[in-house]
Amino acid sequence: MKLPELQSGTLVRRYKRFLADIIDAQGKTLTIHCPNTGAMTGCAEPGSKVYYSRSDNEKRKYPHTLEFVESAHGLVGVNTGRANRLVEDALGRGIITELGCWSAEQIQAEAAIPSGAGRFDFLLSQGQENIFVEVKSVTLHVEDGLGAFPDAISTRALKHVEALQMLVDQGARGLLLFCVQHLGIQRVMPASHIDREYADALRAAADRGVEIFAYGCQTDLLNMSLSHRIPFDFDRSFH
Length: 239
Description:
By secondary structure, this protein is an alpha+beta fold. Helix content is about 15%, strand content about 40%.
């Protein structure tokens, strides 16, 4: 996936969830859009080097968008809106081996949950086979290359897990895919220390057939792609 042209700067602060102040290369302070609703723990430290893009949309109040932050443990893609695009690109190229290769006609984005309670990120359809896929972006580094999700209590994420489990109970195939945009993370677990209810629901869903995978990314700041599977488990002691 080709990235927009990026510029570098220094983070001053992230605030009001969707805003960040940075200092650009010319020393000017800019207020830019921060496309991340999470806590961004460990990847919103003042003084961090950042990379941002600029939109050509003249109607935007804040034309610049925060894309990457250099954290203490590696480069982090903080634009959670890119996670779905990374996964869709990977589906088309057969990178996610557990799912295989899918054409654009077989991939439906923002598919309605059959119960009517919201939407899944993707519905993959081929003949009689239907696979519901929910994507979550991982940016929280806990320790020693270990990442976790979520970085804040998330009722929305919990509802997605429960909906996937319901569909699997009915005989469908449901898959939760953690898109790890933090290049310093080599393995992933649920953040039970942050959201115990979500972690418990995720374990119950896995026990009842919901498939859970984590995939890491690679980028040269010109292009970015989902590139390799990362171990997922419920125990922080795994390696």
